[in-house]
Amino acid sequence: MQLEKWYADVVDGGCVSIHYRASLSLGLLELAYRGQLGRTRHGSFSAGSAKSLPRIDGSPARLLLMTDGGALAWRDATSRPICLWSDGHREVTWNPFVLNGAVEGAANGRGYAEQLRMTVAPWRLGIDRLRWGRFCGDQHSLVWIVWEGRHPLRLVLLDGHEASLDDVNEDVVCVAPSARLDLRERRLLVDETLGTGALANMPWPKRIAPAAFLRGRERKWLAAGDLHVDGKSIDHGAVVCETVEWS
């Protein structure tokens, strides 16, 4: 089993556009996924290998993606792969290519983009709750991942550098020793189970993903973020964050 999943977003004022691409190989079975979340959410699966995955191009490097509305380019793309989990044979590798980049083309704003490569089915990781989020300010970036369950994980990058994650909830992200991201003006974008939302149109869902995994509840928000260091506000920007709960 091999999954390559891309997530890329762009925020302009109070408007957010999120783009998903994925390629899944299960022996002789290959599936491609293409989805978008904005004012509405839509996605589709197709048989065969994906033909619309993002690509990195140019110098300085940009991440290029074709969308229904036209081409988008995220500036400041840099490969920085991080292994989130491995048992020696299978692994999960996360690569946040764009932590905070200007976006140009069919839409304009600032955005974030990441790639996830998995050679293990996600439901085999035993995650009870996933928390993820990203902050793109005028100058700074913050991204975090938390797994709760069989293989707990707490990871945060502040301006691309690994740090210690003290606490994260729906209102604040605390990073040791002295950084804090306050979230306000939170707006709910998604609140649905995986089986009725992101994976609703997956062919043969019972063969690929067990029912318990499809019952996971996904909630995603757009919020305003204020970044503080040593008690002083140093940046403002947009936050996109989510939780997925299986317990």
Short characterization:
With 247 residues, this protein is mainly beta. Helix content is 3%, strand content 66%. The chain has one domain.
Verbal overview:
- With 247 residues, this protein is mainly beta.
- The chain has one domain.
- Helices cover 3% and strands 66% of the residues.
- The chain is built from 2 helices and 18 strands.
- It has helices spanning 205-208, 211-214; strands at 2-12, 15-26, 29-37, 41-47, 55-57, 62-67, 70-74, 82-86, 91-105, 109-118, 127-137, 141-149, 153-158, 161-168, 172-176, 179-193, 217-229, 232-245.
- The strands form 2 sheets. Strands 1, 2, 3, 4, 5, 6, 7, 8, 9 and 10 form a 10-stranded antiparallel beta sheet that branches.
- It is globular.
- It starts with a strand and ends with a strand.
